[in-house]
Amino acid sequence: MNTADQYLKTIYVVQKQEDGPASTGAIADALDVSPASANEMIGKLEERGLAEHEKYKGVRLTDDGIVRARDALQTYCIIERFLANVLGVEEFREEAHELEAVIDDTVADRLDTIIDRQPECPDCFDPETDACACLEIAAAPVESEQ
Description:
Elements: H1 3-18, H2 24-31, H3 35-47, E1 51-54, E2 58-61, H4 63-86, H5 92-99, H6 105-115, E3 125-126, E4 131-132
Antiparallel strand pairs: 1-2, 3-4
Helix pairs in contact: 1-2, 1-4, 2-3, 4-5, 4-6
């Protein structure tokens, strides 16, 4: 998964949480990047036809953007569940964030055969815990840094 896919995944999750366009600030906060960096990538996604950005209103994914975002989210859930359920990694969330940028579709597909993915994936993702709801261990809610 590349950086664009990480942004698409984040926009998708924020859109669902906000029940509307995702604000640039919320995207930047979620990815721990500056608003300027978020705006730059949003512009690139818009050029590729994956997102639509309306100044002061936020970002919406196009149909193609939603498909890519759901694929990226599914890959993230696969990585997370493999780390937590199969390997028993305590800091699975942090590791999954690191690995999602370098795991390609082939590796994700192979990991998928090991974790026995649920049919509701990627709708199993819980933004409150930043984790797949199908984890065999309870994920604690993400603490806000405010």
